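Methods, example record. To illustrate the input and output format used throughout this study, we show the complete record for Sodium:solute symporter. The sequence lines were provided to the predictor; the line carrying structure tokens was produced by it.
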Amino acid sequence: MDAYKLFNWGLLILTFGLLIYLGYLSSRYMNKSDEGGFLVAGRSLGAFVGAGTIVATGFSGWGFMGSPGVTYQFGAIEVLGNFFFAPAMMIAVLYFARFLQRRAIEMGSNTIPEYIAQSHGGGAMGRVLQGMAAIITILLLLVFLTSQIKAVGLLGASWLGIELNQSAFLMVSVIIVYTMLGGLAAVAWTDTVMVCGMALAAVIILVQIFTSVDLGTWEASLNAIDPELLNPTSGAHYGESIGTVFLVLPYAFLFAAVLPYMAVRFLAMKPDVKLHKVGVYVAILGALLSLIPIVGLYVRMQVPNLSDPDMAMPVYLERFMHPAIQGIITLFIIFAMKSTANSLLHTVASATSHDLRLSLLDRVTSEQQALFINRTAVVVLGVLALMMMLYAPPFMLSWLGILGSGTLLASMIGPVFISTFWQGSGWGALSAMVVGFFTSGYMMLFADVGWLIGPLTGCAVSSVCYVVVSLMTTRPVFRKASI
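The corresponding predicted structure is encoded as:
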């Protein structure tokens, strides 16, 4: 093992120790016997930590590994699409977070499936809704988690000089430990540390790229390879029309506002947090991280014949960075991918240990027993996701991520988002989840319509179904929370 590999291992061990220590501190900070502390961090997140965990989770592995690979394959249109996430997340924070937060506090909701159940009347139908929402969340986020584990495993393997399976096992093990210790508080605190490293990595990468290449030469080289890279005539992976890339803005807004692993952060923030401060932090960090896909264009010019586009970022770091700087940036990118992986794992474990438990058993165990079940679920589902990654067929990281998150979005839009301004019935919520699940899933798997058309079509069909079925059935009366 050479000196730089030893340096990388030293960095990894040091930061693993820091992450586990943060998990331990968060477990001490929160009431050990309080399940709400594990599920929503005791509603204790401040402005910067809230923004840090939102941005880290939203960009992370997809932003640093998947998106450069998509840009390498399809060109600058992915850079534009990626940039819409920052304003979309800011809009979700400023105009949706407060309503969801206050209504969840009024009802005592600790997860999004529980919020769906309680906001649609509770009772027997509420248990059905909570169980259905939990099952859909588990199935689809396990798919997404599989892509995140592969991403972090690929990068860690090349960085440490070990096999993919060994790297994935190492990374997942640490995620399991600190998530199990501190729940969402540990996830949020570690995310905040990670996003600071991610922002620093983005600055270093952009400085290296723009100081090492002439822009005119860069443009000419890309046009010689494929004119579609810089001057697309279609929306490429987003759809036939070039205008379909602008659908990323509403998709990203709903991504931040509706998906359980994102929206639960709104529930976890302090009731009196200044959301305009959260929005400013989200805008700054998000805008900076939105520029990372430029790496794909840079590598396409320098190395035009990569067999696997998802290797664009690892190849960039290996060929164009000093080994020591490469090690530090790779660590930050691993941070990025882990920030989404830990959020997905926490949400899947919460859906299993909390939502399914309440749906099936209709009784509350002691807080200590519930906390033990929560932590056990983190371990079991973390190992299951690792096994899924090891035996999954080849896939493109970004596509698998959108399959999971986009289909979940189509399932949840009615009972989570539409219900904020028009209250539907339990039957409307149930039918919307099922219809959204099958519509988006079918279009992503079997229809060649682009990566966004499937989920957004699922959202539209699910929303209509939510309204129509609700009008045909009895709707609960619920006092609206003020925004």
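Annotations derived from this record:
Residues 131 and 405 are 19 Å apart (CA to CA).
The chain has one domain: 3-386.
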